[in-house]
Amino acid sequence: MRKRIRIKFADDMKIGHPLIDEQHKNMVEEVDAIYRELSKGEVDDNIVKKHLVFLLKYAKEHFHTEEKIMQQIGYPDYDEHHEAHEWFIQETKKLIADYNRYGPTKSLMVHMHHLLVDWLISHICGMDKKFGSYYRRYLREHNV
Ligand SMILES: [Fe+2]
Ligand SMILES: [Fe+2]
Fold this sequence. Notes:
Distance between the termini: 48 Å
Oligomer: single chain
Bound molecules: fe (ii) ion
Order of helices and strands: HHHH
Number of strands: 0
């Protein structure tokens, strides 16, 4: 079994766009909340539902925010980034399908936590930071 780790939002996760940084911070707090609930060892139906609703809403709003800015500033890796977002939405839908089939199980919460930790590391601290570098350079070069 993989070890569960606690993650806190840090300055080096910031990309320099206030709304995107705020949304990323909310996601980090969500991951931490799941960690704390898992540590308690109980799986509450309302809590599982709350997280699933958060994830779908987050994906819709946050990805829209990022992709809109990418299109506005002509980000060259838009397609690859959009594909990663689509992948996350599909994974979230799989979790919802699992919930509908098996109900609020501990394995669902563990799976959700793994998905989000991996997403934080590979996407928010990887692809999003790469976009952040482009975004900040764009602002500098265009004196925005
Ligand atoms: Fe993001
Ligand atoms: Fe992203």
